[in-house]
Amino acid sequence: MKILVCIKQVPQKDAPLRLNEQGTWIRDDVSWETNEPDAYALEEALRQKEKHGGEVTALTAGPARAAQVLREALAKGADRAIHLEDDRFAQLDAGNTARAMAAAIAGENFDLIVTGLQSDDFGAAQTGVLLAEILGIPHATIIIGIEKAENGLKLKRELEAGHYQYIEMPMPAVLTIQSGINKLRYATLIGIKQAKTKPMRKVAWAEIEGKLSPHMQKIEKLYVPGSQKQTKKIEGPAAQAAKELVEYLKNEARAL
User: Fold this and answer.
1) Sign of the four-CA dihedral 31, 37, 42, 44
2) Which CATH superfamily is domain 2-211 in?
């Protein structure tokens, strides 16, 4: 089975978030890590490979530093990697990220593509679904169980209020994986050494740019909310004070 895992590098959960000079994104000098749901997607891909054979390819899009998540994937057991390397890839919205990934894997013919359910930074939960639409193959979300069947896949999806859905799906397909589907493995010393010799294909911005849409979501400005305290004192008879309070909550505070 030929499996692709889409992985994103995100700021560490406890990293102090400092904005760049333009106020458009986080500075590069914070600590970065593999997006947690994507780590579970990688683990599930490796388990499927161990059960059924084949190969696992890890893919990420982002600046040079994002190659770290690919090296970690290779050290854990992925066979090769694809890096869409450019700072501009990190600023794409979900739609154009999916277009970029689809262009990078054109002609690869993967049997299964897995991503994390959502990213820990944007949290849109859209990239995997949009990738399936662009590729014209079926998809399923919030997957917590995968079993290969004769004609495709048997899947378990997590719904709300403790309910589950069991479905069958043909391959090729795209699945978005829920955190906790499995227990994550650590890279071994041998795996880390072997990762240095495994192939990593780099895809430049110029190779992908023509496939992107000019109409995309863009972050214009980010800011850290400032803490402030302001007290408004309402004096006078109780009836009048109550009327002024209601007017303030409706028209100024907009709490009613």
Assistant:
1) positive
2) HUPs (3.40.50.620)
